[in-house]
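Slide 14.
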Amino acid sequence: MTHRAFTVDEANALLPNVRVTLHELARLHEVAAGLADQLAILDALWGDAVERETNPDHGEFLEHHSQLADLSSEAEGIVRRRLVDRGIRFPAGGLQNGLVDFPTTLDGRWVYLCWQLDEPEVRFWHEPRAGFRGRRQITAEERKRMGRPDDPAHDDDSALDF
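Slide 15: predicted structure.
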């Protein structure tokens, strides 16, 4: 499978939609956390007994579980449709830290343009295994060399873990 190599300008053009997506995911996460808190209260009150149909809070227990499953499916669908299917990487910790990576090429190898929600534009990149801690500021010269269609690595995705 060939993956898209974003230029810095292409990544920046997608940021308004990515921001909306991250805010929506954060809202879903907040709702899910509230439901998880309610389940924790039911567990503290009843323990395993809440799972019995005769328990007075059993219906609420089932409803919270169902809502959590629905929220999880909704969030997974949003991540897939709005990020992953567009070639954007949503790394581990992406939701908690407002992070996304845009795959690109630099000097014949795959790297990631790295953006965090509070940043006005894409200004950093990192090697695939370096992660957020390995971020480097994009220089003007690197910017010109990123995402070039004539890059030999453009069709080689073996270095990226999607």
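Speaker note: The radius of gyration is 20 Å.
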